[in-house]
Amino acid sequence: MRVAILGAGAMGAALTIPYSEKNQVILWGTEYDTDILDKLKRGEDHPRIGTKVNAEEILFPDEIERALDSDIILIGVSTEGVMSIFKKIENMIDSQILITIAKGFIEKNGILTIPEAIWHEREDLRDRVVAVTGPSIAKEVALKLPTHVTYSSISEKTLDVIKNTLATHFYRIETSKDIIGCEVGSALKNVYSIAISWIRGIESRRNVTMNNLKGIIVSMALREISQIVTAKGGRWESVYGFTGIGDLIATFRGGRNGMFGELLGKGYDVNSALKELERRGVGVIEGYTNASRAYRLAEELDEKGKIRLEELKLLNGINDVLYHDGNAEEVIDALF
Q1: In three state form, how does the secondary structure of the chain look?
Q2: What percent of the chain has pLDDT over 90?
Q3: Active-site position among 22, 87, 88, 189
Q4: What global pTM score does this model have?
Q5: Residue 254 confidence (pLDDT)
Q6: Whether residue 275 lies in the annotated active site
Q7: Which among 184, 210, 215, 298 is least buried, having the fewest CB atoms inside 10 angstroms?
Q8: Domains identified in the chain and CATH numbers
Q9: What is the mean pLDDT of the chain?
């Protein structure tokens, strides 16, 4: 099959490696990717994953129509860019399967998951939208290190096509029809991994080991994520699989949200932490950009009587640190 990846960032580039084992892969870049595309055209390594991509074609922003002449289209940009890319291609999507890899919420008539936002624009795509969740660090995917992720859709037929087409011996795929639960849980794990990583920063600053506290915060995070997932209409079981706990571990141990949380635990304020990560060349911190939406989703569910926001102590603490100048260590102390 012909697979088009829209977005030449770290994950979009990394996925050219497993996808190309069975398929013809096309990598298209946005206007923000042009420097990267120039390097790739010259045969250089991708600067963020440290290896070459495996795409038969590398296309620039004005060549998007060529990319869409594909059987499968993957939108490989951050949450903030998903809908702008979708609007660009909306009228050119016919029978293709559409995959999204961003893990966040969209603000549109309330707080929606990314599939819900796409369905809102094109109801006829409901059976052909697939979401990717689970532990998936881009550099590890690019190096063919063991990866096992979840592809979710409401359509069993679509999932069968995806698994048969994209799974490899090192990039393994499980499927789920709980697309809402997978997407909500995955977006929330980015948010909660920030709080878990505060502890790593506190440990560094105080020169102590706090494994007991890590266990406590992870348990609280999973409990709160499960409450929100089920209130939104998903299945709690999704939280305890690759989508939830698996991705949570990968993110706070090695992801960008974990780096951000660690800096906050070391005493950085939010702006200083974001600037430090920018200096290091780290991409978008999805957990930060989505934490306020996660909080508003919890408010919506509270108003509907499906959850009690006051009981989500860790989410309230995250909101306090990220948006109200709260101190991470003080927030943790106040949890008990």
Answers
A1: CEEEEECCCHHHHHHHHHHCCCCEEEEECCHHHHHHHHHHHCCCCCCCCCCCCCCCEEECHHHHHHHCCCCEEEECCCHHHHHHHHHHHHHHCCCCEEEECCCCEEECCCEEEHHHHHHHHCHHHHHHEEEEECCCCHHHHHCCCCEEEEEECCCHHHHHHHHHHHCCCCEEEEEECCHHHHHHHHHHHHHHHHHHHHHHHHHHHHCCCCHHHHHHHHHHHHHHHHHHHHHHCCCHHHHHCHHHHHHHHHHHHHCHHHHHHHHHHCCCCHHHHHHHHHHCCCCCCHHHHHHHHHHHHHHHHHHCCCCCHHHCHHHHHHHHHHHCCCCHHHHHHCCC
A2: 86
A3: 189
A4: 0.92
A5: 65
A6: no
A7: 215
A8: 2-177 (3.40.50.720), 187-333 (1.10.1040.10)
A9: 94
